[in-house]
## 1
Amino acid sequence: MPAPAPPRPLVSLTGVTVASRRTRETLLTVPALEIAPATRTVVMGPSGAGKSMLLSALTGRLPAGVVLDGTRTAPAGLRIGFVPQRGAEALHPLLPVGRQLRAVTGATAARTRQVLAAVGLDASALAGRRPAELSGGQLQRVAISLAFLGSPALVIADEPTSALDNASRDETLSVLRGLSQAAGSALVVATHDPLVRAKLAADLIRVESGRVHLGDVETADDARATAA
Ligand SMILES: Nc1ncnc2c1ncn2[C@@H]1O[C@H](COP(=O)(O)OP(=O)(O)OP(=O)(O)O)[C@@H](O)[C@H]1O
């Protein structure tokens, strides 16, 4: 019997470059990259290397002032959830948290309660509280709930733990891993922290000086660090 065909990737980038519209400087080069369903990947690299730009290229939503050349393919209507560095960035500052989760996603109160419970939060305790009344770790878990309430096939997180203490970091990674596994969503996380990769048991993409490398290859940055 022939082996089953591998699942179709959620997003493929082929021969992609992203450049500044004004200066034409190339900011990111992606020879070939595929994100398969239900996989976990971390994107690592020095500050300014192009990690956030790669996340934007994967979503197909680029910041103003840059242009993408090459081929990005993704199924029509691909649902993508996004988790920012600070949960507050995903939330309206004045609306009670429970109400805004339902208003933004259209989810029922029961489903909202269920997803909040999955990240360790009690919906009734949050119902009347605004984002400023929650801790950084709680806000990050609310942002994760918001991302998963939309039933995404792909969740993108940009430095989701860099503003957290170690305990909140571990909790955040544990809920990201647990929810993505339970929902069958692929997870792509940009980070500076090698522990994030270990705790997520994720594949690795390196970005160095705007160029994407797949897997545990030694980059010029690694060679310099080893030589130092
Ligand atoms: N809207 C934009 N227009 C032009 N250049 C940009 C724009 N956004 C980012 N850049 C440039 O693209 C390059 C990559 O930036 P990016 O934010 O992807 O880096 P990063 O690896 O995520 O860095 P950090 O870890 O510090 O967040 C940088 O040189 C940055 O100045």
## 2
Amino acid sequence: MLRVVVLISGGGSNLAALLGECDAPGFPAEVVAVGADRDAVGLDHARARGIPAFVVPFAAHPDRESWGDALVAAVAVHEPDLVVLSGLMRLLPPRAVDAFAPRLINTHPAYLPEFPGAHGVRDALAAGVTETGASVILVDTGVDTGAILAQERVPVLPDDDEATLHDRIKPVERRLLADVVRGIADGTIALDPIAASSHAQPDPDLTT
Ligand SMILES: Nc1nc2c(c(=O)[nH]1)N[C@@H](CN(C=O)c1ccc(C(=O)N[C@@H](CCC(=O)O)C(=O)O)cc1)CN2
Ligand SMILES: NCC(=O)N[C@@H]1O[C@H](COP(=O)([O-])[O-])[C@@H](O)[C@H]1O
């Protein structure tokens, strides 16, 4: 059984969907803990199931690296086989990436490398594209520059706003994430340390 720690920042709807997948008989993974960089309401999805929930407040640390070190320590307690960033709205500093990679993945609501960053849905709308997507990637020291493990196109409709488009993207994200976690657990997806190496140029902002 693959031991998974999920990290979030917000409502955790994608976490809730993964928890539901884990309930299915034969699903080869279990969420053993959920963490956040702030007091995220989504942690209640874990608490309601008796799954350990923890907060490592970014604001409580003098800099990103020290926050990252504290996060690594809090995650390591749970001895994960895989760390899933599912709505963690905080860039991990290089030491934290290196502590977890290549068993570190992220879901993003865009068809990477299109629209990376904190506002992928908003940016797709602003660009006026007729399609965007969802992606699951390995996490490296860049911003959404890791190897792509799964992605799928999602249409943008003329009357979409950020909420309606994001609501169309999320179910695709959830399915892709479940498929990737299942694939990692059953060995059909190999997390290649080379592919996951920090080949990206570290984002200079990551050390602030
Ligand atoms: N080292 C990495 N860490 C993280 C990555 C990554 O690719 N490399 N992905 C993010 C998730 N994400 C996009 O998928 C993302 C989230 C947040 C940001 C960002 O700029 N955050 C700001 C704070 C924004 C805020 O407070 O609202 C920051 O960290 O300073 C960019 C991309 C997870 N971590
Ligand atoms: N760049 C990172 C990013 O935008 N992540 C996105 O935040 C949402 C979290 O929703 P949730 O808290 O309801 O699961 C998800 O769509 C996730 O892909």
